[in-house]
Amino acid sequence: MLGVLELQKVGHAHYLTTAEVAARYRTAASMVRYWRHIGYGPKGMKVGRRVLYPEDSVEEFARTLKAERAS
Fold it and tell me: What sequence ranges are listed for the domain Helix-turn-helix (predicted)?
């Protein structure tokens, strides 16, 4: 299993923690965890005990939110 530091280097992708995603959306980390529980929000992956969110997934979620608000 890859450690967090090794994972952040794989494929030159950047990963955000739950706290970083929460800060980006100005909400609590518990809300991001709830989103994950109900299948809403950016898609994350478990790495050991942590959940990390690929930056691409977070950006895709932002585009989805923007599109929903525009319609």
Answer: 15-63
CA distance 50 to 33: 11
| Cα–Cα distance measured from residue 5 to residue 23, given in angstroms and rounded to the nearest whole number | 21
pLDDT in tens, 8-27: 555 557 999 999 999 999 99
Q: Which domain holds residue 61?
A: 4-70
Rounded distance, CA 41 to CA 2, Å?
A: 24
pLDDT in tens, 42-51: 999 999 999 9
CA proximity to 40, closest of 69, 20, 19, 60:
60
Residue 11 sits in a domain of what CATH number? 1.10.1660
Residue with tokens 């952040």: 8
Q: For residues 30 and 57, give the distance between their C-alpha atoms in angstroms, rounded to a whole number.
A: 19
